[in-house]
């Protein structure tokens, strides 16, 4: 991401005196370095995402005055409450499963080590209401590329921190191609401010090409898998209640 092949080779060329070990250590701290090393064995989601139809984007004056909230109550576990009180210190997004390099990210890494993307899009709930909001965050594809998606991967599962009240956690999934869509964001800001708790703080998926229930709030783990089913059910909390897994609009 930050260091493309050219930059990397440039760095090597301009630092003839630097020990290999120290150069490797400093580069190792940056997302994207691993991708450079692992690329031949991984899928490039930028290629998979290119050319897909885009959802409409709107003007700032189209933004709804209130971005309403829907779904389960915010997570009630003590850890979540503690994080929210401490500016999300302690929270980490885990990415694991069929990736070359499982990683976890704190919010500062997501905000500063990746390109920030902003889009004003419409959220359509299956219940029949819509709101327009400005979302900023990191492309899901950029984060997945940073971990290196293995060729056998087919789906991306989002594990959330909230429950239905009966102890079942919300979760969702996308195909790898849907996950590679250039507008599929892991959003940390809504309308220029950190995503409010009611809308999925500290990090939520925002997929404007799919119905609202696909856009998982309160994401804590992204698991890359070869198949749904088994313990992963039909690929989502609402899918397990009979909703369609494919929710394109
Ligand atoms: N974790 C989690 N994500 C969720 C839900 C939920 O209950 N829990 N509800 C979904 C539904 S049905 C909709 S319409 C949107 C609502 O997002 P909002 O609260 O920001 O309006 O979140 C989706 N993602
Ligand atoms: Mo919804």
* H and E string: HHHHHEEHEEHEEHEEEE
How far is the N terminus from the C terminus?
31 Å
Give the spatial strand order of the biggest sheet: 2-1-10-5-6
Main sheet properties: 5 strands, mixed
Query: What is the C-alpha radius of gyration, as a whole number of Å?
Result: 19 Å
**SS content category:** alpha+beta
Beta-strand fraction estimate: 15-25%
- Which bin fits the share of residues in helices? 10-25%
Q: Which overall shape is indicated by the principal axes computed on the Cα atoms? A: globular
Low-confidence stretches: 1-27
- Tally the helices: what do you get? 8
Q: What's the CATH C level of the largest domain?
A: Alpha Beta
Small ligands present? ligand MTE, molybdenum atom
Q: What's the total number of strands?
A: 10
Tally the structural domains: 2
CATH H-level name of the largest domain... which superfamily?
Answer: Oxidoreductase, molybdopterin-binding domain
CATH fold label of the largest domain: Sulfite Oxidase, Chain A, domain 2
Quickly give the CATH architecture of the largest domain.
Answer: Alpha-Beta Complex
Q: What's the overall average pLDDT, rounded? A: 89
Structure description:
- There is one protein chain.
- Helix content is 22%, strand content 24%.
- The chain has 249 residues and is α+β, with helices and mostly antiparallel strands.
- It has a five-stranded mixed beta sheet with strand order 2-1-10-5-6.
- Mean pLDDT is 89; it is low at 1-27.
- The structure holds ligand MTE and molybdenum atom.
- Ligand MTE binds at residues 68-72, 125, 160, 162, 170, 199-200, 212-213, 215-218.
């Amino acid at each position: 991401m930050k260091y493309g092949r050219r930059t990397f080779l440039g760095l090597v060329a301009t630092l003839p005196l630097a020990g290999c070990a120290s150069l490797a250590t400093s580069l190792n701290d940056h997302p994207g370095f691993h991708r450079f090393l692992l690329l031949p064995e991984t899928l490039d989601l930028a290629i998979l995402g290119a050319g897909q139809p885009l959802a409409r984007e709107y003007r700032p004056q189209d933004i709804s005055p209130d971005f309403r909230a829907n779904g389960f109550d915010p997570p009630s576990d003590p850890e979540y409450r503690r994080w929210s009180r401490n500016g999300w210190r302690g929270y980490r997004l885990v990415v694991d499963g069929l990736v070359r390099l499982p990683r976890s990210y704190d919010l500062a890494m997501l905000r500063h080590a990746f390109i920030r993307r902003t889009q004003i899009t419409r959220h359509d709930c299956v219940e029949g209401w819509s709101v327009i909001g400005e979302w900023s965050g990191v492309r899901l594809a950029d984060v997945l590329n940073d971990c290196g998606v293995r060729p056998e991967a087919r789906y991306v599962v989002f594990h959330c921190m909230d429950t239905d009240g009966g102890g079942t956690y919300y979760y969702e999934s996308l195909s790898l191609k849907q996950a590679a869509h250039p507008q599929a964001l892991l959003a940390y800001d809504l309308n220029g401010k950190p995503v409010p708790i009611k809308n999925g703080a500290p990090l939520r998926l925002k997929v404007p090409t799919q119905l609202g229930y696909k856009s998982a709030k309160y994401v804590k783990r992204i698991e890359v898998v070869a198949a749904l089913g088994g313990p992963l059910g039909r690929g989502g909390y609402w899918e397990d209640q009979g909703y369609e897994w494919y929710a394109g609009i």
